[in-house]
Amino acid sequence: MLINGHTKQLAIIGKPVEHSFSPQMHNFFSEITKNNYSYSAWETDSIEDAIKGIRAMNIRGVNVTAPYKKDVIQYLDDVDDTALLLGSVNTVVNSNGRLKGYNTDAEGFYRSLINAGINITGKNILVIGAGGAAQPAVMRFVQAKPKSITVVNRTKSKADKMRCDIFEKLGFDINTEFDAFANYDVVINTTSAGMTSSILPTVEIDGIDNLDFINSECAAADMIYNPPETLFLQTARKKGAKTINGLGMLIYQGIIAYELFTETNLPDDIYERVKEYLIKEKILR
Ligand code: NAP
Fold first, then answer.
1. What is the number of other CB atoms lying within 10 angstroms of the CB of residue 114?
2. Sheet (strand 91-95) strand order
3. Pairing mode, if any, of strands 61-64 and 91-95?
4. pTM as predicted
5. In whole angstroms, what is the distance from residue 181 CA to residue 258 CA?
């Protein structure tokens, strides 16, 4: 890829950012489309100064990661309706000096499920975890009209707060107690349990600590992609469930963001191509 005087700049900003695969993924997109963009990773201690820098240098766009997805909103000119509803921005596009925020995480996760043949519409959904990534995902599921959504969390008060927030914003009631008779069709781990240690995310939740309710009729998804198979996914697979990890979410949120940055459509087979590239280059295991 030739970088020249016309090259438009993109980046991921947050703290930390060195671990991110976004530079490799977005530069691959530019490589195959011949779009003249370059994507870097910039760590910052001040989201306010970073946004001023984007304006001053006329940077085309950035992805925003932890801990700034909420704080960044106050420094933008416009925020798309979904991101506003979620209170979380992970993509900022600079159009002639006006900065607009979007959230591509929840849509990315939803698309990864659909791509894997896992449907939400009309199904009973169990979400484990009530952190920053869970609420946007649940709000996207509500739009797909599931039969029911249950959110369980180690700290139950956070699931109860999410229930209030979602009911207030969308008028959809979610459950926060596990129901042994619910026949959950899709079980989703949104917790960070399993990232660094082999523990089940349900270990401290009464009645479901060992995931006995999962069977071959269920699908199980984990937002974690490293390690590729958490103990949660391994346990679900051994019970016969169809399983997917968080790699699809990572890739789809990037595809949607890139299309916003460049106002172009990536090829239909881009998901498979970028996944193959990331694995071949040993960027991912
Ligand atoms: P977060 O806001 O810090 O929330 C963490 C959640 O995990 C909380 O519900 C917390 O429960 C729970 N938890 C943490 N340790 C636990 C344990 N030992 N046992 C049971 N529950 C535990 O984090 P987040 O931003 O929501 O991210 C959650 C996960 O999603 C992370 O692993 C992150 O890497 C992943 N993620 C993936 C993608 C992707 O592109 N694939 C994108 C975003 C996030 P308490 O409330 O009880 O503390």
1. 14
2. 37-43, 8-14, 61-64, 91-95, 98-102, 78-79
3. antiparallel
4. 0.94
5. 43
Query: Do the beta carbons of residue 39 and residue 23 sit within 8 Å?
Result: yes
Among protein residues, the one with the nearest Cα to ligand 1's atom 3 is 131
Euclidean distance between CA atoms 27 and 88, whole angstroms: 25
Ligand 1 pocket, Cβ-based, cut-off 6 angstroms: 105, 129-134, 153-155, 158, 190-193, 195, 199, 201, 204, 223-225, 246, 249-250, 253
Both tokens of 58, joined, read 């006329």
Which residue, judged by its Cα, is nearest atom 32 of ligand 1? 192
Mutational pocket test of ligand 1: of 107, 191, 271, the residue with most ligand atoms within 8 Å of the beta carbon: 191
pLDDT of the chain along its 285 residues, tens only? Answer: 789 999 999 999 999 999 899 999 999 999 999 999 999 999 999 999 999 999 999 999 999 999 999 999 999 999 999 999 999 999 999 999 999 999 999 999 999 999 999 999 999 999 999 998 999 999 999 999 999 999 999 999 999 999 999 999 999 999 999 998 899 999 999 999 988 878 899 988 877 878 999 999 999 999 998 899 999 999 999 999 999 999 999 999 999 999 999 999 999 999 999 999 999 998 876
